[in-house]
Specification:
Belongs to the UPF0173 family. The protein is α/β, with parallel strands linked by helices. It has 6 helices and 16 strands.
């Protein structure tokens, strides 16, 4: 069994044979379902890009738990050079396997975040294979045709897609992404955290129709496969 817990905004916990956090923005997140102090054991932390609402508490949780931070090569180097007591694994677009978890880093159409006057890395999404389940976390992105390849190559069971608009896809574009990806299930994310990304997930569900089963989770709720 694989459990996917929505932590709020774009943050998720995936729990199976390994415990994985994705974009753990908890401190300062007005809709967060948990705090970084609540995590005692984490194996991997996946970071899609350097914006504060995605890298979030990755370093703090890694320092506490010994989790490995997986990110774009430039971001991984940047984080490990500036923070003591963490281990990072830098990769680029393509597949790898880390501690028995299959990970494919894929492009995302988004900026990554700047610090000290320069951009750090590129934005990405992750396709994660764990215990026979394939999960796609799109990160922050607009819809793009390559998503069709992701579905063809990896057979996605669950897609975690932003629907907030303004910074990412809105409901209309995310529904198109579902059409391209062809997942069995889709969980909307990155909406209703702040006013600029206010959306009604039921509108997204209507737009998706019968293309996939839409699972609307409140922060703290879990979907099990």
């Amino acid at each position: 069994m694989v459990k996917i817990r929505f932590l709020g905004h774009a943050a998720f916990e995936i729990e199976g044979s390994k415990r994985i956090l994705i974009d753990p923005f908890l401190t300062g997140n007005p809709v967060a379902a948990t705090k970084p102090e609540d995590f005692d054991k984490v194996d991997l932390i996946l970071v899609t890009h350097m914006h504060g609402d995605h890298v979030g508490d990755a370093v703090k949780i890694a320092q506490k738990t010994g989790a490995k931070i997986v990110a774009m090569y430039d971001i991984a180097n940047y984080l490990v050079e500036r923070n003591k007591g963490i281990t990072t694994i830098g990769m680029n677009y393509g597949p790898t396997e880390i501690d028995g978890v299959k990970i494919v880093q894929v492009p995302a159409w988004h900026s990554s975040g700047a610090d000290e006057g320069f951009m750090v890395g590129n934005a990405c999404g992750f396709i994660i294979g764990i215990d026979g389940v394939t999960i796609y976390h799109a990160g922050d992105t607009y819809v793009f045709k390559d998503m069709e390849l992701f579905g063809e190559l990896y057979g996605i069971d669950v897609a975690l897609l932003p629907i907030g608009g303004h910074f990412t896809m809105g409901p209309k574009e995310a529904a198109k992404a579902v059409e391209l990806l062809k997942p069995k299930y889709v969980i909307p994310m990155h909406y209703n955290t702040w006013p600029p990304i206010a959306q009604d997930p039921e509108e997204f569900k209507k737009l998706v129709g019968d293309k996939a089963e839409v699972i609307i989770l409140k922060p703290g709720e879990t979907f099990e496969l």
